[in-house]
Design a protein that fits this description.
Order of helices and strands: HHHHHHHHH
Shape: rod-shaped
Number of helices: 9
Helix content: over 70%
Strand content: under 5%
């Protein structure tokens, strides 16, 4: 819709045109002034129309931008690490929008100032030609600014299209992520079922093992009593007595090792392990490196790491040369653990 000139402005222009026509009818300068004024009026009307169209386009663009921004904000909460990049881009777009709004306000203020200058120049007949030149220059500047604004609008539209494509890509990634979560949830449920089943089986096995350990301890007590009888009757140097002592020491060592190094806390007992390991070492005259190694592990389980380090070094000294290729690394690794106050745990 074309904007209309104020009545006062029209009267001034008509008066100027009438005066110019009466006094300069044959003068080429007057005719040139008339044509320039007419062109200026038409250009001003086109300028007003373009400004109105630009404002309408800005409102539609702002409305579209606001709708797009709202969709982006609703989806932002569901995005993963890739969404952080989107947030950064949205911030940049907002800054561009603020700059765009600021530029629009500055252009509007400049246009209002231009309108005031046009009115003043039309009222000042003596300065009309100079005012027309200035207005033409200002109009050209405004045209350049409008052209630049169009380019900025195109850039903003391209950025909005890129943002839409990025949003669609993020939606696709979210769908894939949700599908992966569903699959993971199914695997987790299956794994929990397996863990529950294995836990029940392990609990039953532990209870059975504890029962067997109790029985073994009772048998060891009976064996010790029998050994004491043999020692009194046959003497400690008798072959049968020595064989019984070795067998009993072997059983005591195995049980002590279990109570000192088992991965389950309910099966470990540092005090009992220390007693059994000590008895096994006594029955073998403290010459069996493996039994001394068990004693060190038992002390580590009780928290007495100084004793653990002491007996682990002793076990390394007692270890026969033919057994070193097989056992020395394990002995040394346990020694390093005890030196930093850590007990040894048997790997299941």
């Amino acid at each position: 819709m074309k904007s209309k000139l104020p009545n006062k402005t029209k009267q001034v222009i008509e008066k100027m045109l009438s005066s110019a026509y009466r006094h300069h009818a044959s003068d080429n300068v007057g005719l040139s002034f008339f044509r320039k004024t007419t062109e200026l009026t038409a250009a001003n009307e086109r300028l007003q129309q373009e400004v109105a169209e630009r404002k309408k386009a800005e409102q539609e663009l702002k409305k579209y931008w606001d709708e797009l921004q709202q969709r982006v904000e609703e989806q932002t909460a569901e995005l993963t690490s890739a969404n952080e990049q989107l947030q950064h881009e949205i911030t940049e777009r907002k800054e561009a929008e603020e700059r765009f709004k600021q530029d629009a306000a500055e252009r509007t203020a400049a246009n209002e100032q231009l309108q005031r200058e046009i009115s003043e120049r039309k009222e000042a007949e003596d300065n009309l030609n100079e005012g027309a030149v200035e207005l033409t220059a200002a109009n050209e500047q405004l045209q350049r600014e409008i052209s630049e604004r169009k380019e900025a609008e195109e850039d903003l539209k391209r950025e909005a299209a890129e943002l839409t494509a990025t949003n669609e890509q993020l939606q696709h990634q979210i769908a894939e992520h949700e599908q992966a979560e569903d699959e993971l949830r199914g695997h987790r449920e299956k794994l929990e079922q397996r863990v529950e089943t294995q836990t029940a089986e392990l609990t039953a096995a532990n209870e059975q093992l504890q029962h067997e350990m109790t029985n073994v301890e009772l048998m060891l007590v009976e064996a010790l009593e029998t050994l004491e009888v043999k020692c009194r009757v046959l003497g400690e140097g008798h072959l049968d007595t020595l064989r019984s002592m070795n067998n009993l020491a072997y059983c005591l060592n195995d049980l002590a090792w279990l109570e000192a190094t088992h991965p389950l806390a309910e099966l470990r007992n540092g005090a009992k392990s220390t007693n059994k390991a000590t008895k096994a070492c006594e029955l073998t005259n403290w010459k069996n490196a493996g039994y001394v190694d068990t004693l060190a592990a038992a002390y580590a389980e009780t928290g007495d790491f100084d004793s653990a380090v002491k007996w682990q070094k002793e076990s390394l000294d007692l270890l026969p040369e033919k057994q070193r290729p097989v056992h020395q690394n394990g002995f040394e690794e346990r020694l390093k653990l005890y030196q930093v106050d850590k007990p040894y745990r048997e790997i299941p």
